Amino acid sequence: ANTKQDxxxxxxxxxxxxxxxxxxxxxxMVNLFPSYIGSTVSNQxxxxxxxxxxxxxxxxxxxxxxxSFDFYPFKGNAYTGxxxxxxxxxxxxxxxRKCKETRDSSSPVEMRTFIQTVGDFTGLRSMTSIGDIRFQxxxxxxxxxxxxKYYKYIDEFEADADSDWALLSYKTGEYTWLYDCAKTVNxxxxxxxxxxxxxxxxxxxxxxxxxxxxxxxxxxxxxxxxDHPRIASFTSSEDALMxxxxxxxxxxxxMLINFT
Length: 260
What we know:
Mean pLDDT: 87
Largest sheet: 3 strands, parallel
Radius of gyration: 19 Å
Low-confidence stretches: none
Number of strands: 10
Strand order of the largest sheet: 1-4-5
Strand content: 15-25%
Helix content: 25-40%
Number of helices: 9
C-alpha cells in the first residue's frame, strides 16, 4: 500500500493480515510517498510532509517495525541533461533520524529504501550505467537503510534484453542489462553486510570539495555535518560522505562514500 494511513485504516488492515496469515508468516508491505510529492500528501489531509511521516511513526511503524519510502533521485532528458534532485540526501537523513529516535524504545523502527531503475513521464531519467545503481545503494546504506528494493524490478510492458526498463520483463522473461548491474552491486554489498548489520547508524559527515561550487544536496541537509572525536578533519578531492556508526560494544565504524 502506498496510501494515506489516516485514522485506523492501515492498523485494521495489519491486524486482518496477522489474523489470516499468523505472525511470522511474511509481513504486509507498506510504502510511503517521497517528500517531493507535497501536493499528494496535502490532498490527503496532512499539512506538511513531516505530519505525514510523524503520523506513520505514531500509528503504524510500531507494529510493522519499519518505514519504507521511495525517493527517485535521477531526472532529466536528452535536452536538459542528467540532474540529481537536490533533496535526495536531506530526505534520507530525515527518515534516518526519525528511526534513530526509536532505537531505544520498545518498538524500534528500521529504514527501508527503493532504488530507481527506470525513467518515466514525470521527468525521471533512464539509467545509464552500473554507477547509477551503485550510487543509490551506497547512499541508502550510508544513512542506515536495512533493506533495498527496486522500482521497477519487473516491467509489465514489452521489453527485451536491450531495454532500459526495469530488471526483468514480465512478458518475455528476459533479463535486461540493468539486472546484471544490480546483481553485481548486490554481490558487492553482500561482502559487507555482516559488518554493516553489526553497526547502528549515528550520523554523517560531508565534505564539499570545491568551495566555489556548492553541492546543493549538502546545502539542503537539515542537520549540519556531524563532528566525531576520532576524526580531526574530513577532506576529499571530490564531494564525499562519511557515515559514522557504532556497534553494540561501543566500537566506532566509518564508511566513506563518493558523492560525485
